[in-house]
Amino acid sequence: xxxxxxxxxxxxxxxxxxxxxxxxxxxxxxxxxxxxxxxxxxxxxxxxxxxxxxxxxxxxxxxxxxxxxxxxxxxxxxxxxxxxxxxxxxxxxxxxxxxxxxxxxxxxxxxxxxxxxxxxxxxxxxxxxxxxxxxxxxxxxxxxx
Length: 145
Prior knowledge:
Layout: H1 9-22, H2 33-46, H3 52-62, H4 65-70, H5 72-76, H6 83-95, H7 99-108, H8 117-128, H9 133-144
């Protein structure tokens, strides 16, 4: 027995098309591409955009010309299986500062200045990136003590 109030497949498809039209990605932020991808993926979740190919085309369409020229090889030959993940990886590789640069920034920005301690700690964690939390804690303890 089917629910007469449930939307048909055609109606569901039309609703997804309308949702996709409303999806607007933020402008690319080369200073912190990882945060930018968090925002992009939040939009994809809100609008239920699960397709790798659709995600790829959305991201490719909002990248500025200077970025697309640097990633022309990826854009002209997208991955057959995971085009979005492949593009995301290449963007992060290109625009994320190296671990060495981040550690140098961490040491250079280590003074409190006019920031609150919590702001300094947040910035240090951002610079450390996605490393092991226990290693982060040990390094930060060493810097503070």
